[in-house]
């Protein structure tokens, strides 16, 4: 599918790094280096504004390599980009390690998955259909 994008700093656009990747790596668009201290969170700009078709969303997800090697996560993971959002896409990174983490412009900080979603209308009822699970949850089926 084709998605319209405004790329104000003419950065490298989000891209699939392998042929069948689900996520496109998103890059930081910065005027100066950002440092995340331990447990600090910052909104990191990408310089991108997009026009998703109706019925689609974009999910902003962490990169596992940054998470594993540097403890970098996304506070609101997965972030949701609504189809009607026209502002700049930003990524709310958090440093869950004990060391400072530096982000420079062009660094791949997160990944974006574009997905379809349903738009729901509610039908209020008094009873729901019966299932084997019923109300069981939170470990109801055991742990091993
Ligand atoms: O990681 C994110 C999450 C959201 N957004 C933008 C796009 C999204 O469409 C908008 C609103 O996000 P969300 O609905 O998650 O935030 P909210 O706290 O509910 O704010 P709002 O009242 O504006 O919906 O902010 C981002 O740029 N990055
Ligand atoms: Mg919202």
Automatic annotation (TrEMBL):
Gene: dut
InterPro entries: dUTPase, dUTPase-like, dUTPase-like_sf, dUTPase_trimeric
Alphabetical list of NCBIfam families matching this protein: dut, PRK00601.1
Cofactor section: Mg(2+)
Origin superkingdom: Bacteria
EC number: 3.6.1.23
Job of this protein: This enzyme is involved in nucleotide metabolism: it produces dUMP, the immediate precursor of thymidine nucleotides and it decreases the intracellular concentration of dUTP so that uracil cannot be incorporated into DNA.
Pfam family of the protein (one): dUTPase
Keywords of the record: Hydrolase, Magnesium, Metal-binding, Nucleotide metabolism
Protein name, UniProt field: Deoxyuridine 5'-triphosphate nucleotidohydrolase
Catalyzed reactions per annotation: dUTP + H2O = dUMP + diphosphate + H(+)
SUPFAM superfamilies, A to Z: dUTPase-like
Domain dUTPase-like: 12-142
Positions with a binding annotation for substrate: 63-65, 76, 80-82
CDD domains, alphabetized: trimeric_dUTPase
Pathway: Pyrimidine metabolism; dUMP biosynthesis; dUMP from dCTP (dUTP route): step 2/2
Family named by the database record: Belongs to the dUTPase family.
